[in-house]
Amino acid sequence: MAGANSRDRQLRERAEAVIPGGMYGHQSVALLPDEYPQFFERGEGAHIWDADGKRYLDFMCAYGPNLFGYANPEIDAAFVRQLQAGDTLTGPTPLMVDLAEAFVGVVSHADWAMFCKNGTDATSMALVAARAHTKRKTVVRAKGAYHGAAAWCTPRPAGTIETDRAHQIFYDYNDVASLEAAVAQAGEDLACIFAAPFRHDAFIDQAEPDPAYARRARELCDATGALLVVDEVRAGFRLSRDCSWETIGVSPDLSTWGKAIANGHGLSALLGNHKARKAAASIYVTGSFWYQAAPMAASLETLRLIRETDYLERITVLGERLRSGLAERARAAGFGFRQTGPGTMPLFLFDDDPDLRKGFFFASEMLARGVYIHPWHNMFLCAAMTEADIDGALDAAEAAFGALKREAGGLAPVEKLAFLSAGAR
Question: Core-most of 167, 245, 300, 315, by most CB within 10 Å?
Fold first, then answer.
């Protein structure tokens, strides 16, 4: 019998020869425990199978796109029907109009929609549209917030130059005084304020938006003529059937969407109100595959399921079941175990674990028991998960906490995350 992860290791060796670094971007496992597979063969419902055939309950949901389950039969059937009729054509199909109307009908602040492929496309379009609308340059955004991989916002600035990242002022999420200071610094050059639906930065506890902070962001934009942008790429339709900030009474001018809006098929969107319509029409943005019809068909079916099913209520209940069960098992094992963020998008961190050695060990033990979690990035629940899935994950966690209790005193530092401890000093 071949060794563990033998095919995955072979694929990594081949990838090293033909892909820079062997893998790149957010799906690289370079900063995950060594046992984590890099390559996967397939997904179905709430589960994925790696290249060696091992099955996992997947709490990453492809880093968010899986909302209704991998290979959802209704969504994929709509995709295939349109793929057979026509996908990438000389012009868009009527589905583009249908989908724009559907988004305007679902998202309260939206009067129009533009479609693209990735979250980075959508956030970059929002920035350009805001600058076109205001004829100003400066963007105010939260420290540590992720808005994509373009030169203006990438968290890894290798290859960028100072001018790529110019005209940006940063504030602390949820800190009204910090936000006000950033806006004051921008002065008459403020084009927009970018905000995430909640703080979902990597490596640190998540935080719900303070309504006072969200309201103040809206007030400052109204007072200065700037546009308020809420970046829903990661959280869209996992917290609400509307823009997330609508639940706290704040409507943005622009919102950016991606990941789950077509249940994993390649599509993202920029939505906006009438105020920003003329500016959005004036900018030049395009892509050879932005107008593909099959992902739009998948998105229309996804939006139908969002409107007509109780998916949101179900994943909310499952998230609370997971959260309470993990808290109980962590207490029983004697660990300080922090669960932050919405129950549908949880993050797990251990107390007294600056280099995540406990988190890495726990994640590896969960993986060995068929549950794929992430030690430092927020996770996701999907509508294909069941109570039995959650209960199985809790059984795995109980065993993983037990193993950690036995081994915690002898855990070595996680060398690949040494930068976390260095930053703390």
Answer: 245
Q: By C-alpha distance, which of 340, 337, 361, 363 is closest to 350?
A: 337
Tens of pLDDT, residues 166-179: 999 999 999 999 99
Q: List the structure tokens of 174.
A: 């949820």
Distance CA 372, CA 348 (A): 13
Whole-number Å distance between alpha carbons of 362 and 399? 10
Give me the count of residues in the chain: 425
Alpha carbon separation from 119 to 123, 174, 234, 236, 278 (Å, rounded): 6, 23, 8, 11, 22
pLDDT tens-place string over residues 116-165:
999 999 999 999 999 999 999 999 999 999 999 999 999 999 999 999 99
| Pair 12, 38: CB distance under 8 Å | yes
Could you please report the per-residue DSSP string of 75-118? Answer: HHHHHHHHHHH-SS-SS--THHHHHHHHHHHHSTT-SEEEEESS
Residue 387: both structure tokens together: 């109570």
Give the pLDDT of residue 315.
98
DSSP state at residue 258: -
pLDDT along the chain (425 residues), means of 10: 77 97 95 97 98 98 98 98 98 98 98 98 98 98 97 95 97 98 98 98 97 98 98 98 97 98 98 98 98 98 98 98 98 98 98 96 98 98 98 98 96 92 58
| Residue 162, Cβ density class (10 Å: 0-12 exposed, 13-18 middle, ≥19 buried) | exposed
Amino acid, single-letter form, for residue 84: Q
Order of strands, sheet of 55-58, starting from the edge strand that comes earlier in the sequence: 40-44, 47-50, 55-58, 371-372
Strand partners, 18: none
User: Who's near 2: CB < 8 A, 6+ residues apart?
Assistant: 52
Q: CB-based contacts of 106: which residues, under 8 Å, 6+ apart?
A: 241, 242, 303, 306, 307
Distance CA 404, CA 406 (A): 5
pLDDT of residue 425: 39
Cα Rg for the chain, rounded, in angstroms? 22
The predicted model scores a pTM of: 0.96
Bridge partner list, 44: 47
What's the DSSP call for residue 174? T
Q: 265, 249 in Cβ contact below 8 A?
A: no
